[in-house]
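INFO  loader      accepted 1 record
INFO  loader      residues=101
INFO  predictor   begin
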Amino acid sequence: MYAIIVSGGKQYKVEENSVIKVELLQNEAGESVKFDVVMLNKDGNVIVGKDAKDAYAEAVVVKNGKGPKINIFKYKAKKNERKRQGHRQPYSEVKITKIVG
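INFO  predictor   done
INFO  writer      dumping tokens
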């Protein structure tokens, strides 16, 4: 059994006991979270739309962190204009404990 959940404007395919990285959540490590389910596959039976509105996935936040650093360098040729920036995208790592549907 697997489900497609929505978090942070993105969709993720999850199964029970799977660990995924999602956009940063406001929950601390150890807290539980519920995700909305868009599609559910129960032993080959696909449930979507209004039939899946009561379905949800329970998860526990494992940790919050930052991804790898990305270097951004902008410049304009022949103008002596340069701008260097770095960015580390924050994320939450969650473990799916149960899929209800």
